[in-house]
Amino acid sequence: MAKVEKKFKFTVLATDVVIFTIKDDKLQVLLIKMKKEPFQACWAVPGGLVNPEEPLEQSAQRHLLLKSGLKNVYLEQLYTFGKVKRDPLGRVVSVAYFALVPSENLALKTSQEYAGVGWFPVNKLPPLAYDHSEIVALAKERLQAKLGYTNIIYSLLPKHFSLSDLQAVYEIILDKKLDKRNFRKKIFSLKLVKKTGEERRGRAFRPAELYEFISRRPAVVQIL
């Protein structure tokens, strides 16, 4: 690793955002490719320094938009990472967030500060800069836990979906199979979804009835 001159004389504050989606039947995370030393050719989650009078969540939203092109997504504060030597430029404390987005119609972009942007399966990540592997791992744990007692799954699905689509997202994130009958019974009992009156056709299987969420606002519900 090349020697890097310290940039920050005092402690500075940053925000980093772990962005999850379901793509190709896998839980994937969005990463940007670094250019600067000592992490040249490594990847990282989008993030950056907080402006002096900027609220933390606003900083996370700003970096999310500037470095990935995403906005208006589910966003939740995750944890504060503050190891003294986590950044070679000096003492940088990062308040991490995680975000959830459906994979349909995502148009990614990044700034000239970075070499690229892309989705990677969480179980097959490239070398990550800083302590971002730790941040991604904790974000995945938080997501898995929150599926059990909240309705935030709506953030990963399109407006209309089948019950099989819904169950598949749970199974992908939790990395386990769920009983179909019990799963659907629970979903209906909680009144999370309603029929749209439409069907998905054109696939090898019989037409699938389509549903939508009754509410797309975060709520506490005991699902698992």
Describe the structure.
The protein is of the alpha+beta class. It has two domains: 134 residues, Nucleoside Triphosphate Pyrophosphohydrolase (Alpha-Beta Complex), CATH 3.90.79.10; 66 residues, Arc Repressor Mutant, subunit A (Orthogonal Bundle). The protein is 23% helix and 28% strand. It has four helices and nine strands; from the N terminus they run ββββαβββαααββ. Strands 1, 2, 3, 4, 5, 6 and 7 form a seven-stranded mixed β-sheet that branches. Strands 8-9 form a two-stranded antiparallel sheet. Strand 1 and strand 2 form a beta hairpin. It is elongated, with a radius of gyration of 19 Å. The mean pLDDT is 91.
Layout of strands and helices, then pairs:
Elements: E1 12-23, E2 26-33, E3 43-44, E4 47-49, H1 56-68, E5 74-81, E6 92-100, E7 116-121, H2 132-147, H3 163-174, H4 180-189, E8 193-200, E9 208-213
Brief characterization of the structure:
The protein has 224 residues and is of the alpha+beta class. It has helices at residues 56-68, 132-147, 163-174, 180-189; strands at 12-23, 26-33, 43-44, 47-49, 74-81, 92-100, 116-121, 193-200, 208-213.
Low-pLDDT windows of residues? none
Number of domains: 2
Described by strand count, sense and barrel closure, the largest sheet is: 7 strands, mixed
As a percent range, the share of helical residues equals: 10-25%
Number of beta strands:
9
Counting DSSP H or I runs of 4 or more residues, the number of helices is 4
The CATH topology annotation of the largest domain reads as Nucleoside Triphosphate Pyrophosphohydrolase
Specify the structural class: alpha+beta
- Work out the radius of gyration: 19 Å
Tell me, what is the CATH class of the largest domain?
Answer: Alpha Beta
